[in-house]
Design goal:
The chain is mostly loops and 329 residues long. The protein has one helix spanning 3-11; strands at 320-321, 327-328.
């Protein structure tokens, strides 16, 4: 069967073309919504700007196929082979790609909003500007992938492999990353407001100038992380480990750092207005020019901290250990 015959039969109302061989066919801009191409051989086929909304492409062979700018919404691509396919700018909104092969595929600026990619391997993929809003990304292998500028708000990333990924300027508001291993990951200028990062590992991670307002980061390990200039307003950081972290010029207004560890952390120029540091440890921390207006320092320990330009009288002091070792309140 060639492309002309397929289009003729499709226009006559036929939809079932499962298992057909259209290797290398030119179907550019073809309108093939709701077509059944299960198990079809579509290697190197040109489907650029085609309409495949509602199509069944489960198990289809699409090696090196051109699907750039195509519309493949609410479609089934379960176990489809899209190895080295060109998907640039394509739409796969609410589509199912469980078990699909995407190795070497071009995925820049693809729209996969609310799609299901559970357990897909995207190791080392270039995913710049991709739209994963509300997508199911459980157990996806993202190791060493480039997700700069990606939209991941509301996505399910439980069990995903995030080793070595790049998330600079990514949109991750409301993402659930509880317990995730993000050791050393670049999240600079990322949007993480409302995200759940409780119990996550973010040691040596770069979160500089990121937006993390009202996020959940209880017991998160942020040892030696870079949070310079980040917005941590109203963040839950109870029992978090921020030892040796860089928090210069960070906004921690109304944040909860109860029982947190900030030994040798650099908080110079940070905003700690109405922040709770109840029973927190800040041994040797840099507190130069910190704003402590209304902060709760009950039971906090600042032994050996640098305190130049700090006005302790504007904070709540009760059993607080000051830098010189004396206890007040």
């Amino acid at each position: 069967m060639d492309a002309q015959e397929l289009l003729k039969r499709y226009n006559n109302g036929e939809r079932d073309f499962h298992g057909i061989n259209l290797m290398g066919a030119n179907l550019q801009q073809a309108k093939l919504s709701d077509i059944d191409l299960r198990g079809a051989y579509l290697g190197a086929v040109n489907l650029s700007r085609a309409n495949l909304n509602g199509a069944n492409l489960s198990g289809a062979f699409l090696f090196r196929a051109d699907l750039s700018m195509a519309k493949v919404n609410t479609a089934s691509l379960v176990a489809a082979d899209l190895t080295k396919a060109n998907l640039k700018g394509a739409e796969f909104i609410k589509s199912v790609l469980k078990g699909a092969k995407l190795s070497g595929a071009t995925l820049n600026h693809v729209n996969l909003r609310q799609s299901n990619l559970e357990s897909v391997n995207l190791c080392g993929a270039n995913l710049q500007g991709i739209n994963f809003r509300g997508a199911n990304l459980q157990n996806v292998n993202f190791s060493w992938a480039n997700l700069s500028g990606a939209r991941l708000s509301g996505a399910n990333l439980r069990g995903a492999n995030l080793n070595g990924i790049k998330l600079t300027e990514a949109y991750m508001n409301g993402v659930d990353l509880q317990g995730a291993n993000l050791d050393g990951v670049d999240l600079s200028e990322a949007k993480l407001s409302g995200a759940n990062l409780s119990d996550a590992i973010l040691t040596v991670a770069n979160l500089s100038f990121s937006q993390i307002r009202t996020a959940f980061m209880a017991r998160t390990n942020l040892q030696a992380a870079n949070l310079a200039g980040s917005n941590l307003m109203r963040v839950d950081l109870t029992e978090a480990n921020l030892s040796k972290a860089n928090l210069t010029q960070a906004n921690l207004r109304n944040a909860d750092l109860t029982a947190a560890t900030l030994n040798q952390a650099d908080l110079s120029g940070a905003n700690l207005q109405r922040t709770s540091l109840h029973n927190a440890y800040l041994w040797g921390a840099n507190f130069t020019e910190v704003n402590l207006m209304g902060a709760n320092l009950t039971g906090a320990n600042f032994r050996g901290a640098k305190e130049q330009g700090v006005n302790w009288e504007v904070a709540v002091l009760d059993h607080t250990t000051l830098p010189n070792g004396s206890m007040v309140g």
